[in-house]
Amino acid sequence: MRPTAPPDYPDDPIAEPVHKGRGALSNESSRYDSERRIRTTDGWEAEAASAAEDDELPPLRTTLTRDATRTILARNSSPDIPFDRSINPYRGCEHGCIYCFARPTHAYLGLSPGLDFETKILFKPEAAKLLAAELASPKYRPDVIAMGTNTDPYQPVERELKVTRQILRVLSDFNNPVGIVTKNHMVTRDIDILRSARWRRPAFRWAS
Ligand code: SF4
User: Which atom of ligand 1 is nearest the CA belonging to 152?
Assistant: First the structure.
């Protein structure tokens, strides 16, 4: 069978298939990629369209990757940010808010700020150990550590991994103040630590 029309590729992108239950509609290449990936047509779009009607897209599953970072406290000296140190136990966020300002950070990993951001999650299994070592250093000066400033520390997988919970235990043990930004009700799981007598004024913000 002959193609129905002369091919328009490679400059004529066609719509990405939509994955139900995800926030982003595409997996646009990151700004650092040397090549840009687009879906295009070879002229057989009529056949492809009728085949697509018969085919359900497979569910887009979330994958987890260990982040082997050796530094857990991120520092900043920005005058317009009310904290100078933060911890992000995860990179990427399965909550997938389309407006999320952290999406472009996935480009640093060679991943897309689109669907990759919400389906390819990195976690830091050594976070609590690294933090304990940093807080125990004689050079460390205590101050508020912000959590969830880049991506939400209560990813769905936190239920099993407990990376954030282990970090909170270390912060409590060292009596180091913490501020948490999350939109996940799972933060209430850790209320026992947040209520700890070690912290006179625990602070967290829960945005829905
Ligand atoms: S919950 Fe927060 S970090 Fe996660 S996608 Fe939404 S805005 Fe971004």
Answer: 3
Mean pLDDT of 32-60: 67
Domain range for 189 = 63-206
**Domain contains 147:** yes
Structural domains counted in the chain = 1
Whole-Å CA distances, 87 to 71, 74, 131, 165, 180 = 10, 6, 9, 13, 10
Dist CA 151 CA 38 (whole Å): 27
Instruction: Determine, yes or no, domain membership for 36.
Output: no
Q: How far is the CA of 97 from the centre of ligand 1 (A)?
A: 5
Residue 138 covered by a domain: yes
Tens of pLDDT, residue by residue over 110-150, are: 899 999 999 999 999 999 999 999 999 999 999 999 998 89
Dump pLDDT digits (tens) for 62-90: 999 999 889 999 999 999 988 999 999 99
Whose Cα sits closest to atom 6 in ligand 1? 97
Distance of CA 139 to the CA centre of its chain: 31
Any atom of ligand 1 within 6 Å of the Cβ of 94: no
Q: What is the distance between the alpha carbons of residues 87 and 71, in angstroms, rounded to a whole number?
A: 10
pLDDT of residue 139: 95
Q: Is the pTM of this model over 0.85?
A: no
- DSSP lists the bridge partners of residue 85 as 75
Strands (E), 43-114: 63-66, 74-75, 85-87, 90-91
